[in-house]
Amino acid sequence: MRQSRGPLDHALCRNDADPACSEILPGVADWYELKGSSERMKGRYAIPRVTMSTILVLLAFLYPVAHAHAQTVYIDITQPSFERLPIAIPDFKYLTPAQTELAAQTAKTLADDLDYSGIFRALDPRGFLQNSQEIGLTQSDIQFSEWRRLGAEFLVRGAYQVQGSSLKMEMRLFDVVADRMIIGKVYEGPTQDWRAMIHRFADEILLALTGERGAFGTRIAFVQAQGENKEIYLIDFDGSNPVQVTRDDSLALGPAWSSDGSRLAYVSYKEGGPKIFITNLLSGAQHLLCGYPGLNMSPAWRPNSQDLAVTLSKDGNPDIYLVSSTGAVIRKLVQSYSINVSPSWSPDGTKLAYVSSETGKPQVYVLDLGSGNRQRITFSGDYNTSPAWSPKGDWIAYSGLSGGRHNIFVIRPDGSQVRQLTHGEGDNESPTWSPDGRMLAFSSTRQGNSSIWVLLMNGTGVRRLTNLGGSQEMPEWSPRLGTR
Asked: pTM to 2 decimals?
């Protein structure tokens, strides 16, 4: 059943043709023209060797509130009783005869995005009663009763126009139960960036219905092993668009994103022993961060800071240090006679989860930087590694040895409420959170060589992201890229 509704916190436009309903989304190249005035805003977010969308957001349409108390649906998918919402997404309507194949591709990509969220269940388009090219696009043209008979609670209608190498795409989300439009957008950009436009609209749908954007515009860094070498690669959140970042012809390990998503820190053996390098994803430039004698490993950027937590053995024992953006040591964070690795910051940067072998086997600990207090939080099993603090701060994911297999667990930062999310389907390691905290990516050998998989926080929705040959491991989810 539909969840109860609460008041909208958005400023809504009066109708879906109002040119004043214009919205600028920073982080992409934007242009818009308001009624009665002309105003231009430009900006770019780019990743070297990555075709990020240069989308022009022209109009934002939202449901009228002049004569009704507009409301949005706020959905909590963590509730055990939650049932996915049925949504109909017919093939998009092509307004010119060019690239008609996009009609099905765009609809399927949006359906896949929303399925990833764990919130929606896309209806089989073979059951739709009308030809998708004949279905109306606006609220006045939609036959809501027909979609209700098919069991849909929501409907997306999209249309696009290709002119040369440019694409203009409009999309609307309708509430079939209430006979109204919830949100609409028009995007324009290079035709090859149609997928990024779809991801952006999927984010808008989740924002409208849950109050928070999804992770559809994000990327996942990981280690690709091929032969004797390992390099850092990127993929889109759904596993598409793989791009090689490093070309060290050596071992590149442990990618870590900066808070703004513009840089990756990683460990490379290209100069012999393990050293920490930073690559700028905007310019492609690389530089050495930490090349101290001994081990230099496990970089983790402090949230909203230029500082990093790293493991160094320059003083003999592998301990965790705080270093500046130049690699200068600020202070030692964790010191003992054991091995201390794998730091992971709390979202506010005041605490640090890490792995220590001070009891003989690796276990997860939490350090409070303010008080200096340390607390062991894992006690089930004798081999627990790879902690990852959730972006909301309420859970820590980790990999634990259980029944002879490595599995993914989550635990509260105080050590309570342990939950096991995988159950012996191969070895499952290196969990990493999506920036909305709804999903976890991890590496798994459940189908042979290690590859990157993803599941929802409640343990459902398991799917494979990579199938590139060789093996893929050590995933690291990006922050939101180029969005508000």
From this structure: 0.84
